[in-house]
């Protein structure tokens, strides 16, 4: 699954970057668990958590779609849209005065990728062996 591997490799540094932002704020705010009432720590934690909530499912769906021989062009469109969507969402939510358009664009891209990837899996399963 080289296409899925490619997008997982692109997403991993973003995941680590978002995690380091949380760690840095925890150290700065001297908060070991939770957010300690620190609004910036809460925001950073939610940005990281949101990424963590969506990335695994999208990568699983991309991998399954790839294993079902979904068009490589479609897989690249979905992968690129997801990466750009996650960057957009992270940027928008990370701003102290939230840039709503980036957050909305990121969520739109994320949900679109989830739905299209799920449909690609369904199509692949129905046409390539679910009912031999």
Write the layout of secondary structure elements.
Blueprint lengths: L1 H28 L9 H29 L4 H23 L5 H28 L5
Keywords:
132 residues, mainly alpha, Four Helix Bundle (Hemerythrin (Met), subunit A)
What's this model, at a glance?
The protein has helices at 2-29, 39-67, 72-94, 100-127. It is mainly alpha-helical and 132 residues long.
Structural commentary:
With 132 residues, this protein is an all-alpha fold. It has one domain (2-127): Four Helix Bundle (Hemerythrin (Met), subunit A) (Up-down Bundle). 82% of the residues lie in helices and 0% in strands. The protein contains 4 helices and no strands. The longest helix has 29 residues, at 39-67. The protein is elongated and about 60 Å long. The two termini are 24 Å apart. The mean pLDDT is 94.
């Amino acid at each position: 699954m080289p296409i899925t591997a490619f997008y997982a490799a692109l997403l991993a540094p973003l995941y680590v970057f978002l995690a380091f932002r949380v760690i840095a704020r925890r150290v700065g705010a001297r908060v070991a668990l939770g957010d300690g009432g620190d609004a910036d720590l809460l925001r950073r934690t939610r940005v990281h958590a949101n990424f963590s909530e969506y990335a695994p499912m999208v990568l699983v769906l991309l991998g399954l779609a790839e294993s079902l021989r979904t068009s490589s062009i479609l897989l690249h469109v979905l992968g690129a849209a997801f990466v750009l969507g996650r960057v957009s969402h992270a940027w928008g939510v990370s701003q102290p005065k939230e840039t709503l358009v980036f957050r909305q664009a990121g969520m739109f891209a994320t949900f679109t990728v989830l739905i299209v990837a799920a449909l690609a899996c369904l199509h692949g399963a129905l046409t390539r062996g679910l009912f031999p």
